[in-house]
């Protein structure tokens, strides 16, 4: 791997991937600014309507947590999908518990529920906070709120769609541009950084300003909660000049090669591990050529598929792609391997023209006029 980062032959890629990044990866700034301001206003007003509709939500809702690709700065394409946490703080004394939990998950043990009232006491089953019961309650609050406002707010039509742990709010603008925005609303329980779950801590230097930040429990199964450390991850990847740039390019490759079951978070995890394993990571991501970094991470991605393993950054025994079928991973690996081998062929031939034509074709990007 070090051979790629130190190999100047890949510098031929620098200008090519810069043009691709500019034309088909980077978002339009003006459109992004408009869409974000529009959806933020709708969301804030909708949260206030939820507060008005339900006294329990008004009592325990703390704030919105802005998560996901857009707020991490690695979104590819239009700014029409957003991931948001609804941070809830019920008046309960709670502790994270790893007993009888799969890797990457915790249970929430209730230590004291003396001040607990309905509907919160319905969430407690066998001494633990039940994620399914809490989600069901919140779904009811959202549905009740939408009915009360007749699915209309701030000149927008609103629709509620359930998908996994997220509850998706579809927002359609009634006035031009008539865009539809998807907002995944995920209820989470916040734990302070001083109440770390029973897993190994990462070094303070690596965590940067993320040390001591809170972490979150996300409802995932009937009894267990997925551990989420998006604040810590954001600080780990902060101020690394070409890291997010390279991450966006890898997501574009993933999309166009139809390796869609490898979620964006799994790609991000490859970069988290890369930062941790390299002692001079700031120099690597700030001073190394973009073409070398691009090829380096493509090969890391291929390695992960060949090994059929992307360890969860916070509990490495958990395999993020362990649920994918072997045949799917093998087919995905073959497509990625062919892409890498063809790039290497044109690089070795020093054929910048064919190299750019090939990459543009695979990434569904118009070939620049200079190459036609």
In a few lines, what is going on in this structure?
The chain has helices at residues 2-5, 14-25, 29-53, 55-60, 68-72, 131-148, 204-207, 230-236, 243-256, 264-277, 281-287, 290-307, 326-348, 352-362, and strands spanning 61-67, 81-88, 93-97, 105-112, 124-125, 128-129, 152-153, 156-163, 166-173, 180-191, 215-219, 225-228, 311-312, 315-319. The protein has 372 residues and is an alpha+beta fold. Helix 3 packs across helix 6.
Walk me through this protein's architecture:
45% of the residues lie in helices and 21% in strands. The strands form 3 sheets. Strands 1, 2, 3, 4, 7, 8, 9, 10, 11 and 12 form a 10-stranded mixed beta sheet that branches. The protein has a two-stranded antiparallel ribbon with strand order 5-6. It has 2 domains: 4-26 and 235-363, Orthogonal Bundle (Poly(a)-polymerase, middle domain); 29-228, Beta Polymerase, domain 2. It has 14 helices and 14 strands. The chain has 372 residues and is of the alpha+beta class. The two termini are 34 Å apart. The longest helix has 25 residues, at 29-53. The mean pLDDT is 91. 31% of the residues are buried.
């Amino acid at each position: 791997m070090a051979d790629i980062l130190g190999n100047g032959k890949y510098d031929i890629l620098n200008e090519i991937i810069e043009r691709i990044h500019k034309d088909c990866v980077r978002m339009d700034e003006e459109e992004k600014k408009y869409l974000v301001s529009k959806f933020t206003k709708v969301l804030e007003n909708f949260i206030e309507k939820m507060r008005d509709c339900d006294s329990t939500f008004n009592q325990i809702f703390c704030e919105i947590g802005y998560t996901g690709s857009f707020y991490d700065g690695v979104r590819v394409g239009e700014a029409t999908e957003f991931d948001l946490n609804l941070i809830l703080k019920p008046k309960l004394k709670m502790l994270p518990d790893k007993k009888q939990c799969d890797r990457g998950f915790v249970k929430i043990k209730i230590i004291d529920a003396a001040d607990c009232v309905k509907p919160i006491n319905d969430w407690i089953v066998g001494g633990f906070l039940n994620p399914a019961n809490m989600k069901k309650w919140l779904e009811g609050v959202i549905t009740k709120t939408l009915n009360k406002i007749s699915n209309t707010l701030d000149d927008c039509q609103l629709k509620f769609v359930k998908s996994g742990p997220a509850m998706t709010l579809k927002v359609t603008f009634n006035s031009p541009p008539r865009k539809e925005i998807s907002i995944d609303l995920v209820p989470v329980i916040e734990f302070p950084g001083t109440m770390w779950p029973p897993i190994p801590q990462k070094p303070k230097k690596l965590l940067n300003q993320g040390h001591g930040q809170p972490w979150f429990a996300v409802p995932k199964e009937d009894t267990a909660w997925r551990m989420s450390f998006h604040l810590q991850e954001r600080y780990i990847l902060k101020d690394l000049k070409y890291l997010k740039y390279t991450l966006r390019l890898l997501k574009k490759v993933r999309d166009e090669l139809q390796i869609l079951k490898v979620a964006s978070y799994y790609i991000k995890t490859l970069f988290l591990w890369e930062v941790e394993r390299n002692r001079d990571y700031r120099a690597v991501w700030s001073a190394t050529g973009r073409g070398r970094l691009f090829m380096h991470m493509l090969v890391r991605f291929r390695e992960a598929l060949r090994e059929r393993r992307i360890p969860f950054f916070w509990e490495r025994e958990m395999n993020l792609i362990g649920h994918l079928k072997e045949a799917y991973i093998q087919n995905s690996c073959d497509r990625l391997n062919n892409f890498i081998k063809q790039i290497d062929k044109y690089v070795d031939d020093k054929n910048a023209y064919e190299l750019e034509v090939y990459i543009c074709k695979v990434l569904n990007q118009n070939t620049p006029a200079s190459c036609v």
